[in-house]
Design a protein that fits this description.
With 392 residues, the protein is an alpha+beta fold. It has three domains: 4-74, Substrate Binding Domain Of Dnak, Chain:A, Domain 2; 123-230, no CATH class; 234-381, Umud Fragment, subunit A (Ribbon). 27% of the residues lie in helices and 25% in strands. The protein is built from nine helices and 20 strands. The protein has helices spanning 4-7, 9-28, 34-52, 57-74, 81-103, 139-148, 198-201, 331-334, 361-364; strands at residues 105-109, 123-126, 151-157, 164-167, 171-173, 176-184, 187-192, 205-206, 212-213, 223-230, 234-238, 252-256, 268-275, 280-283, 289-291, 294-295, 340-342, 347-351, 367-368, 372-381. The longest helix has 23 residues, at 81-103.
């Protein structure tokens, strides 16, 4: 090993120069003349010998100058070299980012309220009745709320007397909604940077084709959409841990919906893992799960908050209420003759913490272990009480 490299700045510069020239030589070797290749290689050898030997700094600088002269004489300059270097740096950065996303950390956005109050999805706050009581703040406050708290305000008024007819899907740019078009009285209008399901959250019923069902007639100037939208929690998913161990009961996991009947395909859902392969699951009348005859409670790891509800209080949305049974929420268990469902080998069952508003394994059953992509790690935005590692 040449320890001279550690103490000599000139030696380090010479090594970098060698690497750069050799890279250019290898890239152009098939279009250079034999004389050009041999001249540049000779200059490279001289620098290498001077750097690795006992040559003084002046001799090394002289050999570096000779190498620069040979490179300038024989090698062909890259067109737009600055642009090429910037593109190379960008491609390397993208490759690193994609590798991190694929193998270590993947960003994920909570789309719905099925995990509330542990994790929040997109939450709308509409004005009530005919009172325009939703106050829209000024531009500075809107900007700060948007970047810090994830709050967005929408105040779209009817341009004339009529009704909303159609809503197109938002056009996306990378991870963001860029714009969305809607039809009002046979005329098309645009909303820039709309929230997910903006018109649904404003109270409209929109079918799969974009047609608005039973839209109320509006007068010119009345609010077509007037609401405050709180962004869902944005979190990082740990994609590394499950390469070394299997998921544990109670962990919050993210999984693909591929192959799960009753769910839209090729999407990602986030739920709490409640049952493992081979286990027999029951939904108790006290809103507690029973796994292989053993009742889960607040002492079960990861279920401290899930079972923190007051048994005398009826289940409510967005509050910890245990796991509620019933034909609407849990048809899989209701249809079972003895109320028991067995998880298939190498499969999992998951349920949302918002037990009154969660489409989960109580309805569509278990899914293969291979669908799991990782587990909840921490919320990085917005800056709320759930920021960081607070959600468990």
């Amino acid at each position: 090993m040449n320890f001279k490299w550690f103490g000599s700045r000139t030696s380090r510069q010479a090594l970098d120069m060698q690497k750069h020239v050799r890279k250019m030589l290898n890239a152009q070797r098939d279009i250079l003349s034999p004389q050009a290749v041999s001249s540049v290689e000779a200059a490279l050898r001289d620098v290498s010998q001077a750097r690795q030997g006992k040559a003084d700094e002046e001799t090394l600088k002289k050999q570096m100058a000779n190498l620069e002269t040979a490179a300038n004489k024989w090698l062909k300059p890259y067109p737009h070299a600055g642009i090429r270097e910037n593109v190379e740096v960008l491609l390397v950065a993208l490759a690193v980012a994609m590798s991190i996303r694929t193998f270590f950390l993947q960003p994920f956005k909570i789309p719905t309220g099925s995990m509330q109050p542990t994790l929040f999805g997109v939450t709308p706050e509409r004005y009530s009745g005919n009172q325009y009581d939703l106050k829209i703040p000024g531009p500075v406050k809107r900007f700060l709320e948007s970047w810090i708290q994830g709050n967005s305000y929408y105040n779209i008024t009817a341009p004339e007397d009529g009704e909303l007819q159609r809503v197109n899907r938002p056009q996306r740019l990378l991870l963001f909604n860029l714009k969305q078009e809607y039809e009002f009285n046979n005329k098309w209008y645009t909303v820039w940077f709309p929230a997910d399901e903006l018109f649904d959250r404003a109270g409209y019923r929109v079918d799969y084709n974009g047609s608005v069902i039973d839209a109320p007639p509006l007068k010119a100037g009345e609010p077509l959409v007037k609401l405050k939208v709180v962004a869902g929690d944005h979190l990082f998913v740990d994609r590394m841990s499950y390469n070394f161990r299997h998921p544990k009961r109670g962990e919050i996991i993210v999984f693909e919906t591929r192959g799960i009947n009753g769910l839209p395909q090729d999407q990602f859902y986030i739920k709490r893992l409640v049952a493992l392969g081979g286990e027999r699951v029951q939904l108790g009348k006290d809103r507690h799960l029973v796994i292989d005859g053993k009742r889960l409670d607040a002492t079960t790891p990861h279920f401290e908050k899930v079972y923190s509800f007051d048994p005398a209080t009826p289940p409510m949305e967005s509050q910890f209420s245990g796991h509620v049974d019933g034909p609407r929420l849990a048809p899989l268990f209701t249809d079972s003759p003895d109320g028991v469902v067995q998880v298939r080998t190498n499969h999992y069952m998951v349920m949302g913490d918002n037990t009154m508003n969660s489409l989960d394994s109580r309805a569509w059953g278990d899914f293969p272990r291979e669908n799991v992509i990782g587990k909840y790690l921490f919320v990085y935005w917005p800056f709320s009480e759930r920021f960081g590692w607070n959600a468990r």
